[in-house]
Each structure stands twice: as structure tokens, then as C-alpha cells.
Amino acid sequence: MRCMLTIELKDIDFAYQIGYDSFVSVLHNLSFKAESGEIIGLIGKNGSGKSTLLNILKGRLLPDKGEISIINESKTVIQRHYIPLVSQTVDSNLFPSLTVYENFCIVKSKRNLLKFYNSKSLYKYCYDLLCTANMNLESKIDEQVRFLSGGQKQAISIFLALEYDYPILLMDEPTASLDPFVSENIIQLAKQEISKRNGILFFVSHNLQDIIKYTTKIFVLANGQVNLLDNCDKLTEADLMKLM
């Protein structure tokens, strides 16, 4: 089992600048702690700060105030910019003009495409992995990503994010363009992989049934702060709607 991992945010403030001296506060005194093995669902109304929080965890946005600590059991500091984020904008996670297989080569070879391009074992690995999605993706392995459907692109972006072998995964509406059957396969794959790494998965979705079904904790974002909910399996959609 991998080292224990802890993510802790303390008194985080963040505001977007909308004019020369005008700001809109999104997060205010937000604090929480997450530990290895947790699948955390993030819910909230539009504009509540869900995507903002993921981008802060990723290191794309810097908080105006507060502290962020991500360390493992050996006290090694985790570099946030390495954390994979599967976003709603699927093309931002991919190289659209390259084939599906070439996208895998870049991830596996740390952006040195030629190093692994002729690897028969990697090609077979990629083919077999695509088969697990049950979306006929394996037949698209040599097609340029730009010609795939939105759902196919999203499935591939999730597979690629998992290939980084990192103990933290951030998912922002990852299954919005997938049908329910494929969504379940993809989410279960992400859960299994993060569980093997004894890591932490953050999962944003407007599908409250998915949040209830797949997460071990639920963070409700409201008024710039987080409310923690446990016993997720006992909650209903109506319960969550009342708290948002």
C-alpha cells in the first residue's frame, strides 16, 4: 500500500476580479481536510466555487489568503501542478490533432512521442485498456482525437489522467457527456485505480445520484465555505438539494 496522504486547506479566500477595482468573492474562510482512501463528492449551485476549488487544488489558481498543505506519510510535499484534472472542456485534456495511441505515447513517455511510438507492448496495453470502456474505443486507436465524439474524448481523457500514476485525481463533471452505462464503468475504474494508490479522488457532478452512489464523503459548497456530510449512502437527492 502506498504512503498515507493528507490534503488540508485552511482559511482559503478567493475572489475573481471583474473590473479595475471590483471583485466577486467565491471562497471565504474555506477549510477542510481529506485523507487517503476518500472519494469526495463536491456539490453546490452554479457559481458556488466547485471548479474554482479544483483549480486551486491543481495549482492553476492561487488563493488570496490561506494555506494549502498536501503531504504524504514521509512528509514529502506534493507538487500541485502535477495533479491530473479531468475538466469539463475535454479538448483541454488532449492533443486533438494526434491519434488516440499517440496521446497515450506522450503520457507514458513524458512527452517524448518517438520513444514509445513503435512499442508493440504499449500498443496492446492501450488497445486492451480502451476495450474496458465498452464504447468501441479500441477501433478508434489510430484515429485523430478531434474526430471522436464528446463522450469518447471524455472517456479517453479519464484514461490518460489515470496513466500519470498519481495518488490524487480531480474530476470536474467527468461524465456529463457519457451515457449512464459508460459513466459507471469510467467512475468505477477511477475509484479502483485511486484505491490501489491509497489516494484521494475529488469528484464534481450535478448528478446527485452519482454523488451519493460513488463517494465516501460529500462537501457541499455554499456561501464560500464547505459543509461536510458523512454517511453518504443514507442521503437522498432531496436531502442534498436542501443543503445547496
Structure overview:
By secondary structure, this protein is of the alpha/beta class. It has eight helices and nine strands. The chain has helices spanning 50-58, 100-108, 113-117, 120-131, 150-162, 180-196, 208-214, 237-243, and strands at 5-17, 23-35, 39-43, 65-72, 85-86, 168-172, 200-204, 217-222, 225-229. A six-stranded mixed beta sheet has the order 5-6-7-3-8-9, with helices on both faces. The protein has a three-stranded antiparallel beta sheet with strand order 2-1-4, with helices on one face. α5 runs parallel beside α6 (180-196).
Walk me through the topology.
Elements: E1 5-17, E2 23-35, E3 39-43, H1 50-58, E4 65-72, E5 85-86, H2 100-108, H3 113-117, H4 120-131, H5 150-162, E6 168-172, H6 180-196, E7 200-204, H7 208-214, E8 217-222, E9 225-229, H8 237-243
Parallel strand pairs: 3-7, 3-8, 5-6, 6-7
Antiparallel strand pairs: 1-2, 1-4, 8-9
Helix pairs in contact: 5-6
Key descriptive features of the protein:
alpha/beta
In short:
The protein contains 8 helices and 9 strands. With 244 residues, the protein is of the alpha/beta class. The longest helix has 17 residues, at 180-196.
